[in-house]
Write a structure and sequence with these properties.
InterPro entries: WH-like_DNA-bd_sf (IPR036388), WH_DNA-bd_sf (IPR036390)
Radius of gyration: 13 Å
Number of helices: 5
Strand content: 5-15%
Protein name: ArsR family transcriptional regulator
Number of strands: 3
Distance between the termini: 12 Å
Helix content: 40-55%
């Protein structure tokens, strides 16, 4: 995790996913809070290609900061609050 460079886009994604209903439009097949948002939705918000958003989301999921959930043919991402709190505690302790 420490080798992964901090990226402003990834920080925005994490911040937006704190309150997804405030930052993203409603979805037809998934609940923004319970299920998360798709890479397409994040890409539109960032103003980038979906593949760029996929890369950021996959990295955050690999770090354990996001949870990925498949619904039909799409993957939805939401924050893993327990993991984020755990990481924050590590840094607070001077890890």
């Amino acid at each position: 995790m420490l080798r992964t460079p901090v990226n402003e886009r990834r920080l925005h994604i994490l911040e937006w996913l704190k309150e997804p209903a405030r930052h993203f439009p409603p979805q037809r097949r998934a609940d923004l809070v319970e299920d998360g948002v798709t890479a397409d939705t994040v890409a539109a918000k960032l103003g980038v290609d979906r593949r760029v958003a996929d890369t950021h989301l996959a990295l955050l999921a690999d770090l354990g900061l996001l949870r990925a959930k498949r619904i039909r043919l799409r993957t939805y991402y939401r924050r893993d609050e327990m993991r984020i709190a755990e990481v924050a505690r590590m840094f607070e302790k001077g890890w």
